Amino acid sequence: MSLLTVHDVHRSYRGPAGDVPVLRGVSLQVPEGGVHAIMGPSGSGKSTLLRLLACLDTPDAGSIRVAGRSLPAPWSSDGDAYRNRTCGIVLQDHLLIDRATAVDNAALPLLYARPRTSKRERRDMAAELLTRLGLGDRLRHPVGRLSGGERQRVAIARAVIMGPSLLLADEPTGALDEERTDEVMGLFRSMSQPGRAIVIVTHDPAVAARCDHTWRLRAGRLE
Ligand SMILES: Nc1ncnc2c1ncn2[C@@H]1O[C@H](COP(=O)(O)OP(=O)(O)OP(=O)(O)O)[C@@H](O)[C@H]1O
After folding, report:
1. Measured in angstroms, how far is the CA atom of residue 44 from the centroid of ligand 1?
2. What are the structural domain ranges in the chain?
3. Closest Cα to atom 9 of ligand 1
4. What number does CATH give the domain 2-222?
5. Residue list, ligand 1 pocket, CB within 6 Å
6. In this predicted model, what pLDDT tens digit does every residue of 166-179 receive, in sequence order?
7. 158 and 105 in contact (C-beta within 8 Å)?
């Protein structure tokens, strides 16, 4: 069964010389229980597509359904709930809180979880994930003082902490060495159970080779 169904999605941006079409009829069916990759040249619209799937933006035309339901409006409370409970996202600019520790950044989505969790539970869950991602000795560091690859892993921990049905990750291993890439891919693989799917945008053929399926974005369409 498809967890994610995208049908004939279009998205243009307004440019100085008129509209610039980026997505020109993207269709996609992502089955449950796997790790999938989207590749494509720089500027082909991969991040644009991911933002639509994360309900951070709306298509000009076409439809997106997750677990059989159409996506809500991005800035509605249903959109917030979708991003908190159904979908986890790792963006290229990680949007972390620099002064807060790695644990507090990773635990942030749990603040809005129902039923509520105690501060202790939230920190324990975050610490466990961060340790699994090789950050056991950085738990109490403010993320503003972490390296690019360390920040990337904090963003991954924050995206997966709620156990999302759909995990979307834009270049999640772009700043990581081989060993750390293995840890991240291992975490994604362990999450890819029935009822869940993981979609990663990557430029790295070695990462795509470890995914169940790879789509290529070319000329505004997926192949
Ligand atoms: N908010 C925006 N306003 C105008 N144009 C935009 C906007 N966001 C993206 N674009 C344009 O849309 C095109 C696709 O951008 P996008 O970031 O989706 O590509 P990408 O495939 O993710 O690229 P990369 O691999 O370099 O990250 C680019 O030409 C970009 O300049």
Report:
1. 7
2. 2-222
3. 48
4. 3.40.50.300
5. 13, 22, 40, 42-48
6. 999 999 998 889 99
7. yes
